[in-house]
Amino acid sequence: MTSAPVLLWRRLTAEFLGSAFLAAVVIGSGIAAQRLSPGQTGLQLLENAAAAAGLFAIILMFGPVSGGHFNPVVSFVDAAFGGLSWRDAAAYLPAQVAGCIGGAVAANLMFALPAVTISTKHRASPAHFLSEIIATLGLLVVIFALVRSGRVRSAPAAVGAYIGAAYFFTSSTSFANPAITVGRMFSDTFAGIAPSSVPSFIGAQIVGGALAVGVIKVLYPDVTPAVAADFIVPHNQAGSAAARAAPDGTSPFADRPSGRAQPR
Fold first, then answer.
1. Separation between Cα atoms, residue 252 and residue 1, nearest integer Å
2. Do residues 208 and 140 touch, judged by C-beta distance below 8 A?
3. String of b and e for 35-61 (b: at least 16 CB within 10 Å)?
4. Residue pLDDT, tens place only, 106-160
5. Which residue segments constitute the domains of the chain, with CATH numbers given?
């Protein structure tokens, strides 16, 4: 049974909305943390880490349409393995960035703040740079390991869990996403980042993405475009599940219930 590819404009809409929700969750939970626990930085960080649960839900909401990337590095790594065309990856980027900016504005307004407040929180340092490389590398390896082994149903939860953990084991609190990095400039609150720190963070995230491509090729040298097409969750693929079988003969959908493909 075949399923028709999802039209690009629908995927871009999903990426825009998912990115907006992501930014709203990250920034909004940070504002709430500041107000609920003033002066208690550790508790504020714990409360802000609730965004990891939000990310889990957002991937479930929009992933079946676009793949649930919400992150330019994820999209371009997907393209590097043939799961997404370079043209589509380039189209995803502005949708993701615009969505994160819109989500930042929405978060500010939900807490009765000015729509745009440019952050003054400087975060650039060698430690932060290294943290963002490691956070981004780890995120991509987690995603690809699950997709390659056919455990795509676990990807949303695993991504949320990894980001939640990385809030605490990295000094940068694991942005690991150029789009959310740009979006967080527009809120001078707990989760914000000063514009002067953004180039360093994005540079580190790109380095982390490039390293991830190399690591994935070493760990999974037989990855095919059909396998990469399920990155983070299956998207825009025509053909039967059998056509997407992993190189070792196992299906990426081995853990999914069988059933007729639904029209999109």
1. 16
2. yes
3. eeeeeeeeebbebbbbbbbbbbebbee
4. 999 999 999 999 999 999 999 999 999 999 999 999 999 998 888 888 999 999 9
5. 8-223 (1.20.1080.10)
